[in-house]
């Protein structure tokens, strides 16, 4: 374990430095601005349709991101980038105009440098929204511009309040082949007005999300910075073949429910190379809420998370649940770095959820300053209404954690299953957690079963050590991740 500790400590100083820079931006009330020189704006834009914006060499790796047949610039529709003028009509007109090219090679809307204030708007199929460096799309703080929409069927109500919900800022509904990318432009939800209303119990409806992609297929979100979301940041729901790559998400660490990336009843989702500072979970995998999720019956599956960096002092680096009533399975997470976060991996569920969480594989985590390294909660009590089924018990099985190093930890693990419904098949191997006070309780385990191999401090009796010759916990390896990637790229058409 010595070499693992040395290797895992190396990135921590860099992360701490970045954390200081980011928090200083929030505390000073300003923006973290990029001072690179902006090239002059032209109607011809290089690399504007790229799915990852990383240049031609990496485009070949990510396959299929050549140019769209048609392009337009936001200013073609009368937009003014002064941060004050409303551009809601311009965004709406631009997308409507470019939608006519869905079956004619697709289209891209280029957002040039400037501060572009707008109300919520929708995307279209075979479409790229490209933010140039220095482009900032600002969400309107005029709540009258945010219409109400129906709750998601797998939730049955708004997440904050019963009934409908406010529109999301950017929505894609029933789309094929949609890309949000750029040269690290910014989408700013200006969420403080929403956070204040939430804290003061002044909301009339549930807050909208910064980006929600619904019933859609073949989606890329890359090389964009998302800041100050009213609530969740990126929410692909009832969707498939989704790539989130090279993005930054920033929210004040005390902002309510500003989850980073939440795949929800979605399949073949690949999250990679992203940095998240959040007031809630950095990544939360979901699949519906109690009886509504059970009835909708769409699981989240084949989710890959790679090279994620997270700061979330009050929540998890990676969470599953608590809304998991449609089931979650076949999740791989690897090469994860976190500092100052509540827990490394948390599974949240409870009586009434039903569903399942199984075949979860997490390896190579480097964690600095954590309350718990691993946390499983079987007593999560929030329900959408009084009609949930108390006999609907979740199945939690096949949970595998390996190659984890954590320092400055309060407790190694808090693993709490459900009486009469234990969490089974837990495997933890090659894990070192350096606890702050070794004299205090280091493991708290109830209603679980599993095993451990080469774990320090010594796990609870419900996770007996298998000895020095035992085989490490399983991990699917590259064949599984490649199959998810290939499924996306082999079917991609632009």
UniProtKB/TrEMBL annotation:
The keyword Ion transport does not apply. GO terms for biological process: carbohydrate metabolic process. Gene3D superfamilies: Single-stranded right-handed beta-helix, Pectin lyase-like (2.160.20.10). One of its GO terms (molecular function) is polygalacturonase activity. The keyword Kinase does not apply. InterPro entries: GH28_Enzymes, Glyco_hydro_28, Pectin_lyas_fold, Pectin_lyase_fold/virulence. Residues 1-32 form the signal peptide. Keywords: Glycosidase, Hydrolase, Signal. It comes from the Eukaryota. Belongs to the glycosyl hydrolase 28 family. This is Probable polygalacturonase. It comes from Ananas comosus (Pineapple).
């Amino acid at each position: 374990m010595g070499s693992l500790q040395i290797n895992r400590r190396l990135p921590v100083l860099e992360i701490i430095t970045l954390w200081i820079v980011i928090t200083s931006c929030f505390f000073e009330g300003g923006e973290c601005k990029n001072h690179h020189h902006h090239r002059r704006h032209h109607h011809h834009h290089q690399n504007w349709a790229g799915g990852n914006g990383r240049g031609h060499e990496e485009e070949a790796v990510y396959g299929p991101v050549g140019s769209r047949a048609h392009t337009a610039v936001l200013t073609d529709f009368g937009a003014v980038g002064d941060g004050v003028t409303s551009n809601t009509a311009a965004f709406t007109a631009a997308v409507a105009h470019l939608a006519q090219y869905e079956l004619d090679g697709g289209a891209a809307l280029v957002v040039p440098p400037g501060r572009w204030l707008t109300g919520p708007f929708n995307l279209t199929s075979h479409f790229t929204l490209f933010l140039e460096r220095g482009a900032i799309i600002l969400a309107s703080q005029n709540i009258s511009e945010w219409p109400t929409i129906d709750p998601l069927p797998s939730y049955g109500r708004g997440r904050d309040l019963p009934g409908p919900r406010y529109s999301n800022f950017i929505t894609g509904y029933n789309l094929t082949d949609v890309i949000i990318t750029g040269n690290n432009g910014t989408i700013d939800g200006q969420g403080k007005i929403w956070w204040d209303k939430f804290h003061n119990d002044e909301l009339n409806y549930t807050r909208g999300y910064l980006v929600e992609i619904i019933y859609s297929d073949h989606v890329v979100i890359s090389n964009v910075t998302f800041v100050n979301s009213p609530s969740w940041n990126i929410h692909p729901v009832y969707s498939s073949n989704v790539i989130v790559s090279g993005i930054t998400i920033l929210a004040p660490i005390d902002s309510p429910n500003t989850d980073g990336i939440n795949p929800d009843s979605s399949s073949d989702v690949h999250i990679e190379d992203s940095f998240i500072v959040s007031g809630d979970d950095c990544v939360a995998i979901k699949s519906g809420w109690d009886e509504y999720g059970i009835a909708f019956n769409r699981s989240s599956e084949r989710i890959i998370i790679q090279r994620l960096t997270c700061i979330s002092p009050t929540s998890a680096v990676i969470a599953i649940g608590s809304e998991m009533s449609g089931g979650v399975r076949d999740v791989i997470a690897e090469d994860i770095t976190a500092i100052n976060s509540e827990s490394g991996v948390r599974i949240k569920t409870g009586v009434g959820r039903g569903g399942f969480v199984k075949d979860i594989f997490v390896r190579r985590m480097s964690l600095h300053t954590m309350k718990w390294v691993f946390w499983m909660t079987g007593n999560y009590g929030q329900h959408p209404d009084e009609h949930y089924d108390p006999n609907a018990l979740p199945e939690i099985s096949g949970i595998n954690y390996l190659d984890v190093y954590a320092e400055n930890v309060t407790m190694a693990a808090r693993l709490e299953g459900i009486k009469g419904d234990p969490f089974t098949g837990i495997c933890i191997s090659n894990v070192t957690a350096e606890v702050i006070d070794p004299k205090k309780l280091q493991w708290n385990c109830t209603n679980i079963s599993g095993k451990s191999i080469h774990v320090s401090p010594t796990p609870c009796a419900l996770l007996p050590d298998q000895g020095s010759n035992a085989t490490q916990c399983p991990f699917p390896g590259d064949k599984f991740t490649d199959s998810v990637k290939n499924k996306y790229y082999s079917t991609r058409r632009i």
